[in-house]
Queue: 3 jobs
Job 1
Amino acid sequence: MAVDSIGTCQVVGCEMTSCLDPLKPVTTRHFLRVCRNTLQVSVDTVLSCNGTAQLTNRSSLQGDNTSLALPLTQWQFFNDADINATPFAILTGNPVNVDLAGHSAVGVLMTTLHIIGSDTCHNDTIFIIHPHQQPTLTIAGQTNIPRDSLTNLTASSTTPGTTFQWSTSSDSVTGGIPTGPQLHVVPYADIATYYVRAISPSGCSTWDSVRLFRYNPRSSEIAAEIFNQVRIDSIACLGNAVHVAIGSDTNNEVVIANRSVTLSHPDTTFLPDGVPCGTQGCSYRSNVTFNQFADGATVQTVNDIKYVRLNMEHSYIGDIYINITCPNGQRASLMNYGGTGTSECTSSILSSDRGWRSGANASTSTFLGNARDGENASSICDGNATGNEPGSGWNYCWSNNTDMGYRYAPGDGIIYRQANVVTLPNGSSVIDSSNVAAHSNFYHPEQSFSSLVGCPLNGDWYIEVQDGWSMDNGYIFDWELSLKASTVDSINIVRTDIMGNQVVRTSDTSYVLSAPPTATGDTTVEYIVLLFDEEGLAADSSVWIHFVAPTYDSEALTACEGTTLWAAGHPYRESAHFIDTTLTSLGCLHITDWDIRINPVYKLYDTAFFCYGKPLTYDDSTYSVPGTYRLDSTTVAGCDSTKFVTLQVQDRILRAAFELSDDGERWSRDTMLAGCRPYQVLLHNISTLATNVEWQTGDGGTPEGDSIVYTYENTGVYQITLVATSPHQCRDTAVAKMAVWVFDQAKATFSWNPATPVLSHPTAELIVDEPVEGQQYMWVIQSSSGSGFDTLYGQQPSYTWANDNTPVEGTFDIVLSTLLLHFGPYGDTLVCNDTSQNSITIVSDWLQFPNVVTPNGDGINDHWEVVNLLECGLYSMNELWIYDRWGHEVYHAKNIDKKEDFWYPDDDNCPDGTYYFRFSAKSLWGLIKRNGVIEVVR
């Protein structure tokens, strides 16, 4: 957007709003002035909705010399459009990008464009930028649509005032112009993608899309079990492609499995206890109804009945009889009655369904599930009665199926065999349950399901449980029947597709899948396999491929000369570095960085020196006799080596010595030096055979050098130590235990009170700033005559300047001399002294009040002022009033401390004539008041 600082308004030297469209997010205020060369200011402003603005200055010179270079462009950015605030960013250049993140909440952002030039107008153009955020966007609606059916897609946003625009990849859009939050769609293609753009009131926008599938409702009902699995390698190597063929029953192919139909009946019911209870008497009977099969479809083989499952518990397995009955009345016994007694219900169990097979059978008192043994004899038909509470139900599955991979229980798969009995922690014997998910520990029915061949698939299938003996009970919690779909309506797959990242179709049923090209590490990618029949989408399934990145490791091998190292199947007798690549068990790349180090074996020679009179420690051994020694088993880089060392005695003796002086003339080795602090001492090294010396001054100092000047700042007695080192690192030490004695220094700095004595009171109290105990004081003071001197003693004397009792005025010198006496180390007297000099000024405190003022502008007597008021500085608390001849106040000032505070008649438009003043002031010596007359004459 181009912004013209003059625009069409052509206003110079004014402030105005922008000539732009007021709906745009930029407003300008302009400050222009006429000059020799002016700037035609033009700025491109591009505001992206993620919080970043780009500003481009396209200004040009207008005037006498337009060949001048465009001046420097400087941008300043402020929060809250407050130009008086501190800018949060200052940028120079053209164009510039400014990050507005974190500033959107303030409403507006003030941006100042400052153009600086030598022969042009300095021009500041202010832009108010309204930062905006992208609107939120959510799409809702059904994505699987029956053919020729209408569906609605709805877009929504939490950003107020957002509008929406729709577009599509292929299908028609109904309902007029595709705007507004809702889109009405009739999908005519198998797959179509619909896009929606959310646009905020500021013009910021967000895109999103949704994919619709047209599907065949009848096929989709079947699709839930048609898609048994998609056989695609779940792990592949990064960089390798996975080839997929969708067909039938080969490696890496989609397998269309036989469909099964399963119905269950959740029916927690108390099993009656061997006597007629309720309408069903001794039986529990429940049904499921199938209608999914083709008309006239029947059970063709025992494999068409996948399994019958009961979740139940019952105490005493021998008391109950279980069968299943198909819609035409054909029946198969799941478990025969095993009891030997009779009861009211025994007669209703067919004689052919009584008694167990011979063999290693369990006891008839074995439980099914975690049952509660014992019942309420007085309420045998009431499952809610105390004593009849349910236990925990276990799953038991019966089947003769041979093609589902079921694993049947021990003991020929018969449920009541002893091999199927487990013992609970409470000691109960229980028939082991079936694992439905794992298809294990299934049981064969007592009567083969071949007796159900010819049964209609559609209709009511009944399960019946009958208790033939009293004194025990149980519960049925739920049951289900699963039938194969070998006779269910089939669908014809006419097209396939795979959706996902990096999918390449090589034929109608073949694809190549790859990891994203940006992947550098292990990456898992989702792919969706789609099957279509004549009516649309029939089935879809998600598969994931884990692309394994190359793996890396490093190997380091070390050996000594004469050794052979084997690495990556090759021998090495010298050091080497190489990269070896192998394949993992998955066939993926594994990279090994090999570092082979063959270290040499050395013979080493060394020389060491004895310090005179001291044994030598070398390689953790101590030697006292010179000579050549062989040291074995010294390892270098892990390899055994031999070292030969020659031990020698230094041929000269190292001796540490030094001398001291405080004047550079008298040197001493054993005499204590004494002085006042700060005390300078000269240290001089006179050691023999020393190549390096280390000083220790006793006060923490460690100066370096053979001859040095060292200053002691604090009082005390100090020991000096010198450590001398020879070329072979032998060491010797010289010590002077009481070498330096430093005494306290006298101090002569002083001040006085008051700081400025005055004529009316020319007296000053002299004050020592840093008094020292035992110090003597002598003051020499220039007298009032200016030529003579007076002498005073003491720490804080007072002195008055006078000449024949006449006050004096001027500047006078004062000298303070101090003296400290100390007893030296040898009984002598040590004098420490100090002197300081300063000057004191006595000023006049006599105030004078002129009676004439001439405010004619010549700079002389233009102000009426109180003479000496400012010079002496004694009357800081003061007040002045000026009145005309009629008593009207024309001027008033308080606490005057500069010349401009006095009365200037021209400031108050006062004509010539007579005026009156009133003045009061307070000082250390009391309150003064003055009244008088002032004549104003021009």
Job 2
Amino acid sequence: MTYLRVLVGRWSRRDRLAVLVIALTVALLVGASLLVVAAGDQTRSLAAEHEGNASVVGYDSVDRASQDAGPDDVVLPTATAVGPEGDTRRIVALPADTPALGLPDQPDGTVAPDAEGETWRLEGSDGTTTTAVEPANASDAILPPTWLQTTPGTLEDVGPTGALVVSPVDGGGNEDRGGAPLVGALEFFTQGADDVLGIVRTGVAAAGVIVAATLSSVVRMTIRDRARTIRVARATGASPRRIRVAFAARAGTIGAAGGVLGYAIGVVVTNAAVTAAIVVGLPTTLSVTVTPELVRFVAAMLASITLFGIGTGYVTARAATTKPPARVGRDGSDGGSSAPSGRLRRVGSGVRNRLGPTVLAARTVVPTAATLSTFAVIVLLVASLGTIGASLSTAGTTVADPDASHPAESRVSVDFAETLAERGVPASPEILLFASHGEEPYLVRGVDYAAFESVSDARIADGDPPVGDEEAVVGVELADALEVEPGDELAVGGSTEPAMDVVTVVGTVETGGFADHQLLVSLPTARHLAGLESDEVNQIRTTATGGSNTSEAGEPETTVVDLEAPNHVHPDETVSVEATVWNPTAEPVERELEATIGETEQHRTVELEGHERRTVTFELPTPPAGKYELSVGDDEAAIIVTDAPPLDSLSLPESGPTGASLSIPVRETTGGPVSNATVEIGNRTAETGTDGIARIELPETPGTYDATVRADERERNETVRVAHDANPEPATSLSISPSSPSVHAQPTATVELENPWDRPLETPIELAGPGTTDRTTVALEPDETATRTAALSRQPPGEYGVAVATGNRTLATAEYEVVGDDRVVSALAASGYHRSDGGVESAVEYAMGNLQVLLGALTGLAAVTVVGATSAVLARAIRARRRTLAIYRATGASPGRVLAIVLGDAARIGVVASAAAVGIGIVALEALAAAGRLTAFGISLGPRPTTTVALGVFAGGLVLTLLAALVATLPLVWRSPASLLSEPSARPAANDDRERPGSERGSEPSPASTD
């Protein structure tokens, strides 16, 4: 076998280890690339349904706006309007011909959604004028409801003071001018995801350090192992260049083999990580696929690693081929004049003896720190990126919808804030929106600024606090990013629905938290941009604590959120009751529930974990015949004890035309039909058949008649209005479940519609209740029924009404009472409990879940890669000390003793290397922050880790060093001393001849110097 075949083709176990190390590094790169591409694609897909059709940007003059506007853009001149009461609003001129951007049509004059025919004064750059303002035909969701709308000619008379330019998304208009999309969710998530992935790519690039250190270490170890072959080849005429090319080919082959293996490992591990995330319940939509783009990237990466290996092998081998053949492999330090002398030498020797490594060379710290720095950079980036989720989630204690995955999906009544304020608990009602300005994503928070100050450490850094609805303050960090200052106007788009508004920035605010990166607008402005009702907000942030979770008697404040019981029971039956109990706190509680009916009481002890719901069953003996109130906790239900169930309310329309025929079903409260019952309306009577339905004609004379139903001794009475012009209407019933909800329960309104007439009906229906307005049109054939349900919003304790109407007529009403007291509201605030749901907030939840999977997988891959790379570094250092290890073993040291010595050295090296790696990681993040590359979702991430994170990285680096030392040492410590001495690389170099047991360190041999 020629020397070239030996140098290139004969691989040792160390070479195979190097292939594995490089494979792990490539797996990190490939895995990161797969996850980065998948996370970006999935985030865009999740928010794609909220893509807007236009963007808006503001100008201080119409001329400048017209100059910048493209051919498809719409210019909207603006000015100021002053009302009769002195209130100031913005007025906008709508062109006659606009593209399909959702803008309203040009009005005939000047209109406003809430106008009542007043006279307003228009103020412009050229003068003032007055004009009559008429009510708008219909309010438009895109323009704010407070804005006045007029024609361009009207504003030309006074001179516009500014303008808005609305551009279609494919018109190339506002993207370059820093415009705000009318629907900001997609841009927010897309741009934020791009920021995150850019940061991840930067961190993963640090893995190149591992490849360089590994290949260099392998080549140097090969030179030591093949020193005799090199000396013979050089002595027999081989040129230095041929030797270098051989080592370059060897390193390139190792790099290529590691790259191919790493690609396979990266694909497998990445899919396994996503599968594991799904199994443990992390919200993620990642689907890892190999795209053509990724194939090109991986091919380029493998080619780069191969070329890098060739270059590293050539450069590293150059040092061995520039010296005489006899010196190859004998390049250790000779301990010459460079060493300190005299007292300084003795002091340094003493320090090294006590603190330095025993076997390993102290200079091993440098390559170890280099590999650990990769781990430190990635983990510190992970920790920084992990704070993004906090900025997009609820901060502090909040009242929010427990069925919402994120506060932006939550809908709660602003009355909760008033309830807490009445108890002296500061509370801030807030609305969250996703926005973008140019290419800068950021969060908009709708607040009442005074209430916001009461629950935060906010202070005005410059300017003034907001007073009017059109005023806003901007966080100090966001002000720098958007380049705005007090006095500037800022166009803001909607979040998930098309909308626009313009706010005047009156100050900058500093909180020391994530609000420094947000825009704070008024609640009316935020409601318009978010499409919320006038009494709705996303969350109530408060200072309520867990101390509110107990009653005045000190009992844990669990609450009954639902109560199911029959409304009628036979005297011989048992009353079966199911009560659903919820623990709104995060701590486990134990509470005794009491069920009462008449004179009977029954007790159950229930234990609940934090936020747990559980159904408790009671079986109560039935009291004597009569009407009773069944109570469990604060919830109550009415129960009638009688032999025959009472008759249910009649399914009867409120009015009908004279002489019309209708069907009247007669049922018991249990739902069963009642046969042979008599129905009487005026002088008309009818009897129910076996199906419980009586068919009867209304009187021919208009008037209001009693409708009476008699069955045995049971009777039920209703009224019906008969008129010539009355329209047939469906018989409508409305029920609320639960009938007495607590503040924790979300009640449901159920509307049952029945067509009792002998003709088809098509009726528009509107159901209106707290936080809910549901409109639909119901088409019913004769005797056909339909059911419509709507979820009502959670409300603080009190009485509330729900109505079903058609046109201006009310078909049915129902009232319900929310039970509980203010302590329960505080308990809800202290819980801050959320569950999953859909909408754009799924994009929040899944985007953050995808980010967790991405960062977790990167951390795991980085840890495994660093162990492999550090093992290669330590293996070189340990194998350079095989003669020392052989002496230890020959003089009686057990394998465990030798392993303990090496691990002790690794611990000393790991302490220094880990500390250095943390420092290098912090410096790297500082450099990224200085370059503006450490920003995501509009949040400038802190480059300096917390003490806990820094200590965690340090401890992780130390553990990884010990694991690497263990991997590198175990194959050697169990070998015989003779086998350790027999390998060529263990033959003493010139400086190794001085190694003897019993040096000045005592009984331990002193290590020889190695590279």
Job 3
Amino acid sequence: MNRLIKYFILFLLIILNENLLGQYYDFGRNKVQYQKFDWKILRTKHFNIYYYDEMGEVANIGASIAEQTYEEYKVRFNIVISHRIPLIFYNTSNQFEQTNTTPGLIPEGVGGFFEYMKGRVVIPNTGSLHDFKHVIRHELTHVFMTAKLYRVFKDHRLPDDYYPPLWYTEGLAEYISTDEDSQARMVMRDAVIDGYFFNLENIYQISGTFLMYKEGQNFLEFVAHKFGKEKVLQILDNFWMYSSFNKVMEYTLDEPLKDIDKDWTFYLKRKYYPLIKDKAPPDNASEKITNFGFNFSPVPYEINGTKYIYFVANRDGYSSLYRVKEEKTKEEFNEPELVLRGEKTQELEAFHLFQSSIDISKEGIIAFVTKDGGTDAIHFFSIKKNKIIKNYKNQDLISISSPKFSHDGNRIVFQAVDQKGFSDIFMFDIPSDSLVRITNDIYDDHDPTFGLSDNQIVFSSDRTAGKYKMTYNLFSYNLITHHINYITYLNSNCYSPIISPDKKTLLFTSELDGVRNIYEMNVADEMFLHRIKRITNFITSAFNPVYIDSNEIVFSGFQNFSFNLYKTKLDKPAIDTEQYITMQIDSTAGIWEPTSLSRSAEKEKLAYQREYSIDYAQSQVSTDPVFGTRGGAIISLSDLLGNDKYYFLIYNTAQVQSDILKSFNVEIERINLGQRANYGYGVFHFSGDRYDITQSDEYFFERSFGGFFLLYYPLSIFDRIESDVSIINSDKQVYTGEIERKALMVSNTLSYVYDNSLWGPTGPLDGIRARVLLGYTSDIKYSNVNYYSIIADYRQYFRLGYSSAIAFRGALFYNQGKEARRYFMGGSWDLRGWPLWSIRGQKMWLSSVELRFPLIDQLNVKFPFMNLGFFGIRGALFFDAGSAWDTNYLTTLGSIGAGIRINLFGALVLRYDVGKRIENNFNDFQPRLFYQFFFGWDF
């Protein structure tokens, strides 16, 4: 019991009093606040709209969409939400990724989220009003669903502490917020025909994936089709009746789950299998160039007679720039060659894979776009010099995509979203470094390219008016007359225009048959003819086609839930007969105006003022006859934007009832995350018995109080400077009344932290993590304490394969001076095989080498009452060595062994190691094996 209490007290010290022990610290990438937002509030009848800077027009449009959605949903869900719903708008995904409403890093591709705790809806505007409306409706579905469930539980006097499975909640949000679009058709067609569709019994295996969203949406469409639209929401009305969601569905739909599942599967087969009759997957109707990963934006270039395809891709966890030979030399696929590695430096922080982001000039200059700090940047890479020769970045242009060279290579045209949230076309003159804005309006203009001459720009836009209002059609812009004219007029979205090398045809993609296929338009007498021909007939979609020559194209295609590169001949006949469509420009076609918030609906505009609410509150109290009553509580408060946080901690370490009053411990801390430099400060009072790691089995009573200041300054997403200063008044009694030590300590530390690691299911697989810390602690009143500290920790991961690596760690911990604190190690986190925290000293070193490899990617266990899935089961072979000492180095310790790691629900890693300790100054192995079970991520 005493040993358990000893470790418990030490653990409390580590977790709750960072000022006392500097051994435990964090790595991790940084969420950088690149700019300070001037937040404002637009209050409407049902919403508080939070926006900033020049987003006023977009905020008004978003408010109008939200109010219209509210009026629709209150009828659909049969519920009225009495309070104003907070909607937080960000301008582009780059700025959305800086939000502090959620603590973690937001990856590329997240389109918004609903935060359940405070009911916040956080949405980026990408420049497309169609997408903006979709995301607002999607997230408001979560708001109304949550309110509906709360009322259902309250009406039946039940606790509202559980929700439907994720596939239903996200599927419902997609089902209600939008009709089935080309993206949903593409994914579901591919899943069913290529055989990776997951039915209801197994849908838990894809929880949290994009496929889950689309399967959930499709299932609810099936429910509406077979059982009636009212059944979709009746599931929520009946949710209180059973703890099993499957039972709720069986009751609502009045069929056994296995029959529902069987009918849904048959419904999908009958819907999609007939497509095989006259359509084909991309790899059946074209030649596949790559066969792995997610590959986008191909462009060809010839070097010394060899044709290469340059493209951006994620093939190993990083988005990067690659090239691959166009012609196959063998039956196997050519292995792509890495040109530029992304996601390891701020300059190339992230390639935007799902956007057109690359082009090549005739002189061999590659223009490509990456995220670079708070905005995007265009980089110019010379193939001949094999390096970046120029960069262009404009703080007013937050998001950039689709760079395309002019025919002479002196200019590029591209799409960008500015501070106002407008998605417009820009032209950059390379020799003069001058920028010209081509369009400036609320319409979503993108995919620009130079047309039949360098005085013409062809682009895709939702400015279509008339009977096809708001669809994306192709337009031309004359740089001399500044006139915009229709090129296509279709009831279908058209994207990615490109002119053939001989300027006789225009190539583009369109969703005329439900997914994106490639179409061609002829050119005569420098005029676009209003007749198009489909040249591919894929079951799924094709993206960003470009010409290799006038008769061959290369493109990115979707199949088997991956994106690969394909090429095809234009004179190759389609699977079905050639299909021509003649277009007639609608006489009413002109411009359309987006609906904005009317003055009657608008209540007021205010400057943002902080309003605080509880993030979480947790307490625990325990009583026993020996140690009395102990316990504590922690409360966290923050403002709506998550920029300002307060933490309140109180706990009691009394071991007998008579010590309760003098053993209360309190800490109050404030953390501000609203600027690039994150800072915090606070005060504390700690009192009670402490375990002394200087002596093996000694305790002492200590009362300490003081304050501290913290400063974190991120240099980039990968590295930061950390600093803290604390003042601590400490009264320490080893034996009451006999040995006492008083001190007024000032402690300073300065750290540099670097982390560009890439993680697998149980820990890092690639990259570097490093920390250097310098510290000094001094008793400025009694001179009883005076020591300095050095910590150096370097970890590097060498990738051997997609999911295997060799990991190396070398660390040195050094304290020197009067009453210098001891470090400690032992256990699953450092020196494995040795008892937990049993090795101690003022100086300590540790080295580890570990081979990490996959064992089981997925393990499914079926029980009669439930199914369980375990993912990312990994193995390890390890060798550890280290030592700790005070003044004289005594012995070197080590261990060798093997282990297994299991990722549990993506939140916790269970570790089990077996091996032998290396004892007697590395002369002997432990006679028997050790067995060690613990938890935590790999180092």
